[in-house]
Specification:
This protein has 343 residues and is of the alpha/beta class. The protein has 13 helices and 4 strands.
Length: 343
Amino acid sequence: MARIPRRKIHGALVGSTVSLLQSIERAVLRPLVMRLHGKIERGKLLQYNLAYEGSPGDIFVVTYPKSGTTWLQMIVYQLTSDGAMDFAHIDHVSPHLEETLMPRGRHISDLSGTPRVVKSHHHYRDIPKGPGKYIYGVRNGLDVAVSYYHHARTYFPGWKNRPLNEFFETFMKGHIPYGSWFAHVSGWLRNEDRLNVLIVHYEELSADLETGVRRIADFCGITIDPADLPRILERCSFAFMREHEQKFALEGRRPPPPAKTTPFIRQGKVGGWQQDLDPRLVGEFQKACDERLRGSGDDRFRVLSARDAWQGGPTAPVPASSSARELDAAADDAPRVPLGSAG
């Protein structure tokens, strides 16, 4: 019987050891490092939030990504200023909390002017809390997913040629920047700390911009001069903002991605998901809505779950069930995948 050379035995042992260590790294070390990193970041966030010196005049524009954030920023800017378009980028007049202020060690109290307007995609539990006003923009989740997919193809490494169905599965799991759409929306709708929150539907603005603008103005304590209203509505229109896209796109804050093919302000349509998503994916989404958002009020629920079109007036938030809270907590604790900037 031929003897196996010692070198081959050593080689096999080394190969097995390396394979075992790689498995341990994937199964144990990487998740552990991600969770440790998450706890460090959460500690930094808590420290930042505790230092926040809130003012009743502060205005936070908050959304899950691709839910009309830039539109709301522009509406608030037009309402709180003379509307001049002489800023280089919208981030200069309502800076992004997570990407502009926090990384540079700047605090909201460092901002000049009144009111101080800040943009954020933070979950409810992560936002600095104070006596100011919080405008939370929300949009039908299927339109959010499709818009986020086109954003990912341009700005997230490795997503340019991947299919929508694959991204949708990632979206449903919450394995994208800012995590679960369901947890984000339900947390803000519950508003457990009773912040001064105005819920604004993307569909509401799309159906009747003037009524939506007036609601936001009333919430902010702003009286609109009738002579200014045509200017406000014109500059908050999709056509005007698309024409001035360089003042809103991510490239205004960082170098453009290679071979950019999708505009930052893409279509602004309501219900565009119907041309892109197959019935199986829609069914999965609506089942998840039944579990997570059923307590959000009938009219709002039908819009968010894509079961109905926008019908009119706002609905008041209703506390979610305990099972929905548990699902949200689990989603919040999951590691958030840093694929790229969500805008």
